[in-house]
Design goal:
The structure holds 2 protein chains of 2 kinds. Chain A is of the alpha/beta class. Chain A has 13 helices and 7 strands. Chain A has a domain at 133-291: Alpha-Beta Horseshoe (Leucine-rich repeat, LRR (right-handed beta-alpha superhelix)). Helix content of chain A is 47%, strand content 7%. In chain A, β6, α13 and β7 form a beta-alpha-beta unit. In chain A, α4 crosses α5 (82-88) and α8 (134-140) crosses α9 (142-153). By secondary structure, chain B is an alpha/beta fold. Chain B has 3 domains: 57-155 and 217-318 and 415-485, FAD/NAD(P)-binding domain, CATH 3.50.50.60; 159-211, no CATH class; 324-410, D-Amino Acid Oxidase, Chain A, domain 2. In chain B, the strands form 3 sheets. An 8-stranded mixed beta sheet of chain B has the order 5-6-4-12-13-14-11-15, sandwiched between helices. A 5-stranded mixed beta barrel of chain B has the order 1-2-8-9-10. A two-stranded antiparallel sheet of chain B has the order 3-7. In chain B, α4 crosses α11. Chain B is globular and about 90 Å long. Chain B has helices at 2-10, 34-44, 73-85, 122-136, 138-141, 168-181, 190-196, 220-233, 295-301, 380-394, 441-458, 473-476; strands at 63-69, 94-98, 114-115, 159-163, 185-188, 207-211, 216-217, 237-254, 260-273, 279-289, 319-330, 341-343, 348-353, 358-363, 402-414, 421-424, 431-435. Chain B is 27% helix and 25% strand. Chain B starts with a helix and ends in a 10-residue tail after the last helix. Chain B is built from 12 helices and 17 strands. Chains A and B meet through α1, α7, α11, α12 and α13 of A and α2 of B.
Chain lengths: 316, 486
């Protein structure tokens, strides 16, 4: 407390002295304007034998280090004596940047609420994309509803005995498949789609699905994999390559899919030991061909297998 | 300014919560000049030892609307739901009192971490279903700004319950109840069991029930830390101390039928600070007993059970400490990645742990061989005599195994019917229970927290009706018995 009072008094004393100096300079400038102008051209800042007024003027235009030493102490603490900080604050862009940051910091809870709102909007967007199309299901049946759902997300569908139906670059697709109410869907390519746990409802109704590609889906995780067991009797090909949320814990529940013949589990970043996981999955699904990381990947070399260093002296 | 600081130090009234409970240090010490100020005051004022500005950040506040005794997963879940369901935001002050901040003996962190819906009581199935929903969307419920998302490492591998001839009919009934509530369980014959899991020896097994979805195991420490982090961000205060006394007052009231009842109300909770004789009386409106295995002792402090036996006043809270062992072993030829959480008819259980052919398991001892719960020492002979033989009989590969480590934990064992106690006490009207789950507290914690919060805020259960879990059943004798408890 007392050191602050002392500092306060020191600073106010200094400000007083600066003010009096300013006042004196103004008075002297009024008295002899021409002399001051001649003095500016001189190169030496505080030259010997120069006028006192010129020295004072230079002091103000190039403030000495001590002024800067006082200002930060005050900016860190209370802003009680703000006048001084404004006198010595640097001009220009830095001031504008600092005031924007100050503006945001003053409204901390509003900024937090805004961030919260934006995050919730993102989550609700994914939720909206995965809503079930109940009216299409009731009118056209589960196969058409599932196909519509996948096409709306940006994926591709293949009905039994037909070609692939894909949306074009702008996301539009023809609605010809609406008449294929009794034709089962055989293959679904949902690569890169924002399909999540809720969205799988539409897929699980496709009872004759043989091939499912879920490559690089950002919201497919272990919970989704545990939901795939209703497709066990028909699913023969499953691809999970590149899904960031799938780990070995979700792969453990793929053993329900006893008809599976091809499984792709390459490039799964959340799997802790890809080589070991591939071996364990191969053991779990004996009749399935598993594409994944090489089993030797991640193995440490033993001492006798260390690569020989040919540059150094050859051992005896 | 000198006078102002003295006033602040002497009477904590204006600030409401006391000087020291401001998070991140005292308000006055922002520029580090506190020690100099103290020296100045001491030099001005006469007298020896008087220190007017002392740090009280370790003490709980002087008053709190809700005091939750116990900071495990149930206590934190109640705190979370109280703050989530309160209207308006910030209306309720909640204090969580936990005496061991390292959680070294807490049941939550020593738990095996399983979650299942295969119960016979419908309320248990509903509680478990909601908890699984909570765990699946944990990053929406427990999101804290700028903190990384939680990964509870859920293994959706399911539970496999095996039943002998005697238990087959009960199992079929249970599965019917579970399916009605929405659990995804399928029944398997021994033939189907051998096809699916060739490493099982189906001798003596008549029927098996297998959970296909929403069942498995997860990391309870992660859930605890996630709840703790979120609950702190919502403004719940934590205190490291032990509850030693309840100060209450009684009123003699007449019920509608004319009989006289002695109703008690707790006014203050005395919280004793760790390793010190200092205590802080906390004025409270509601006390939640979520002390886990020690809930019986906390209830005795409130005077529950002080009365002639056979009356409601004399009914104690029948929750006591029971010690259970968990063993971790390695078996290189053991079952693979698809291993579910297997529960034998004899009560022995095991599950896979990680990718290296390690397994966790144990067995519940019978009443006669209950170990002494005074400490958490492990009895390795118990594994040799009681756990290994049925395991080796059920899974022949387990005949050669090597025990890597073991630990012991407590069950908050409800000696009455091994199911939880939820809701207010009929006589101590502001004490609410959330305890006594006898080994399945972790898997029902999120749902039970919500139920207790609804009871506290609304006065009745809104989403899941847990009226059969109230305290009054201990007096009326209506057991909520579960078949198949590990």
């Amino acid at each position: 407390m007392s050191p602050q009072i002392e500092a306060c008094s020191a600073v106010s004393a200094f400000r007083v002295s600066v003010n009096t100096q300013e006042a004196r300079i103004k008075r002297q400038q009024k008295a002899s304007p021409t002399k001051a102008r001649d003095g500016i051209a001189d190169t030496h800042p505080l030259g010997v034998g120069k006028d006192r007024t010129l020295q004072a003027q230079r002091l103000l235009s190039h403030p000495p280090q001590s002024l800067h030493l006082v200002a930060p102490v005050w900016n860190g603490g209370t802003r009680g004596i703000g006048g001084l900080s404004r006198v010595v604050a640097p001009e220009g862009n830095q001031k504008k940047g600092r005031s924007l940051l100050q503006f945001l910091a003053d409204r901390f809870y509003d900024v937090e609420a805004l961030r919260d709102h934006l995050l919730r909007k993102q989550v609700s967007k994914v939720h909206q994309k995965n809503r079930p199309f109940n009216h299409i299901n009731q009118r056209y049946g589960p196969y058409v509803a599932g196909a519509y759902f996948i096409l709306k997300q940006g994926g591709a569908v293949r009905f039994q005995g037909r070609e692939w139906i894909r949306p074009n670059q702008r996301g539009h697709f023809s609605l010809d498949f609406l008449k294929l109410q009794a034709v089962p869907v055989e293959a679904v390519d949902a690569s890169g789609c924002a399909i999540n746990y809720q969205g799988l409802d539409s897929l699980l109704a496709l009872k004759e699905l043989q091939s499912l590609w879920l490559q690089r889906c950002p919201h497919v995780d272990d919970w989704c994999l545990s939901r795939l067991h209703p497709l066990a009797s028909s699913l023969q090909e499953l691809s999970l390559a590149g899904c960031p949320r799938v780990s070995e814990r979700g792969l453990a529940c793929l053993h329900h899919l006893w008809n599976l013949r091809r499984l792709d589990i390459s490039d799964l970043p959340a799997v802790s030991s890809p080589g070991l996981t591939r071996i364990l999955v191969e053991e779990m699904l004996p009749s399935c061909e598993v594409l994944g990381a090489d089993w030797a990947q991640g193995l440490k070399l033993g001492p006798e297998e260390q690569p020989r260093d040919t540059a150094g002296p050859t051992p005896a | 300014m000198l006078r102002r600081t003295l006033l602040l130090g002497l009477c904590r009234g204006p600030l409401g919560r006391g000087l020291g409970t401001h998070r991140g240090g005292s308000i006055l010490d922002r520029d580090g000049k506190m020690s100099e100020i103290k020296k100045k005051i001491q030099s001005i004022l006469p007298g020896g030892d008087w220190n007017p500005l002392y740090d009280t950040s370790y003490l709980p506040p002087e008053g709190s609307d809700v005091v939750i005794v116990g900071g495990g997963v149930l206590g934190l879940s109640v705190a979370y739901w109280l703050k989530k369901l309160e209207k308006p935001r910030g209306a309720i002050r909640v204090l969580v009192v936990e005496r061991d901040h390292t959680y070294s003996r807490a049941s939550t962190v020593l738990s095996v971490g399983g979650i299942r819906q295969q119960f016979s009581v419908p309320e248990n199935v509903q509680l478990s279903l909601f908890s699984v929903d909570f765990l699946r969307n944990i990053n929406e419920y427990l999101a804290v700004a700028d903190d990384p998302p939680l990964d509870i490492q859920f293994n959706p591998s399911g539970y496999l319950l095996l039943a002998s001839e005697k238990g087959a009919a009960i199992m079929e009934n249970n599965v019917k109840v579970q399916r009605q509530e929405g659990a995804k369980v399928c029944l398997m014959s021994p033939e189907q069991l051998r096809n699916k899991f060739p490493w099982i020896n189906t001798e003596g097994v008549a029927l098996a029930s297998y959970g296909m979805e929403h069942e498995g195991w997860f990391d309870p420490w992660c859930l605890l830390q996630g709840l703790r982090r979120k609950v702190q961000s919502m403004g719940v205060l934590f205190c490291r101390g032990e509850v030693t006394r309840f100060v209450s007052s009684s009123n003699l009231m007449k019920t509608a039928s004319g009989e006289e009842v002695n109703l008690k109300r707790i006014h203050e909770v005395h919280v004793k600070i760790d390793q010190s004789l200092e205590y802080q009386p906390v004025e409270c409106a509601i006390v939640v007993n979520a002390a886990g295995a020690w809930s019986g002792q906390v209830a005795e402090l409130a005077g529950i059970g002080n009365g002639p036996p056979g009356t409601l006043q004399g009914t104690k809270l029948p929750v006591e400490l029971r010690k259970r062992y968990v063993y971790l072993w390695h078996c290189p030829q053991g079952p693979g990645l698809e291993t579910p959480f297997v529960i034998d008819p004899s009560g022995t259980y095991f599950r896979r742990e990680g990718l290296g052919h390690n397994y966790l398991g144990g067995c519940s001892p019978t009443e006669e061989e209950e170990p002494d719960p005074g400490n958490l020492e492990v009895d390795h002979d118990f594994f040799q005599d009681r756990v290994w033989p049925p395991l080796a009989q059920r899974v022949p590969a387990f005949e050669t195994l090597k025990v890597r480590s073991a630990w012991a934990g407590y069950y908050d064992y409800n000696t009455f019917d091994q199911n939880g106690v939820v809701g207010p006490h009929p006589l101590v009207i502001n004490m609410y229970f959330a305890t006594g789950f006898s080994g399945h507290g972790l898997q029902q914690a999120p749902a039970v927290g919500r139920a207790v919060a609804e009871m506290v805020l609304e006065g009745h259960f809104q989403t899941i009706n847990l009226s059969s879990f109230l305290f009054s059943r201990f007096y009326s004798g209506e057991k909520v018995q579960e078949h198949n408890i590990i």
